[in-house]
Amino acid sequence: MYCTTCGTKNEDKNTFCKNCGAKLVANNTESQSVAGNSEGANAHNSMKSKMIAGAAVAAVVIVGGLLFWKKESNSKVINTIVAQKEEAASALNHEISEQELDESYSISDSDKETNTTQATNTYVPGIYSSVLPFGNNTNVELQITVDKNCICSINIPDLDESITTVYPLLLPTLNELSEIIISQQSIENISYRDENSYTSMVLMQAISETLAVPRVDDEEISDRKGSEEGSNSKRGDLVFTVLGEEQQPDSFKEIIADKSAQPFQISYTLGEELYIAVGYGEQPSGGYSICVNEFYETKDAIVIDTVLISPDAAKSKSAPYIPARPYIMIKTENIEDKTIEFK
């Protein structure tokens, strides 16, 4: 070892320096070496720590990058799946929409057909009558009121009390059948009750025969359209309602009663409504019908064309002489400053 005072080299076993006698410090060199080694180790450890830290940071960055890439990749996959699902759903909805649209068009076409059917006249509007022969030279007049597409009323006007006494089921059965027919607008598939089956059959036969008169077929519809197209002065058909006796204003019926023995053509304004009546005077029997052939407006006028239809010849021969005064009344919107022309 070396003396720390004078620097003389001494043997390791000496306690004091052989040169200056100073006390030697044992393992000084080793301590320095250890210290040096410690510093080196610390430096090495520091470097190693730095390397480890760097490696850890790099690992974190790499792992984070991998996780981020995986997340982005998964996100892209998820987005792709979602997009595919949305595309599939959109295609399905489009298919459903097209199907619904097709069904909608199908319904619309059906509605158009229905509307076309409704727009086409089923009947020639008017009041139609037929005679029901009963015993003891007694006839009952059945009267049916129809509009273009509607059976409006079925009744027996001015029914004598003596008839209701002899035939008590007549009026109740007619009212029952009338309610069913007007409700379903058809005379098909009507069942009869046992207690009034015969009366029902007689009435239904008369109703069927009476409704056959105003019914319009395809050929008549075509002829009517051709006639309308050929009329240059005609602006358009007017909407109107044929009135049964129970629907007519009492004040107007009183005027008609005074004139009904002779043919007449009169109009009556009540508020915003216009009533027009056409009568054909006294006829030799019941069973006469009146139809409204045309009802339209021109530039200056309202035109009404009615036709009197005679009863069936075979039935009228067997019918007793009971005179009748057939007339028809319609209601429409009052149009000011236009005259009424009767054809």
Average residue pLDDT: 74
Q: Judging from the principal axes of the Cα atoms, what is the shape?
A: rod-shaped
Contiguous helical run count: 7
The tally of beta strands, per DSSP, is 11
**End-to-end C-alpha gap:** 156 Å
Gyration radius, rounded: 56 Å
**Beta-strand proportion:** 15-25%
Order of helices and strands: HEEEHHHHEEHEEEEHEE
Assign the structural class, choosing from mainly alpha, mainly beta, alpha/beta, alpha+beta, or little secondary structure: alpha+beta
The share of residues in helices is 40-55%
- pLDDT < 50 stretches: 28-41, 88-119, 228-232
Could you give a short account of the major beta sheet?
7 strands, mixed
Can you give me a brief rundown of this structure?
The chain contains 7 helices and 11 strands.
Protein described:
- The protein has 343 residues and is α+β, with helices and mostly antiparallel strands.
- It has a domain at 126-342.
- It has seven helices and eleven strands.
- α3 crosses α4.
- The radius of gyration is 56 Å and the shape is rod-shaped.
- Residues 28-41, 88-119 and 228-232 have low confidence and may be disordered.
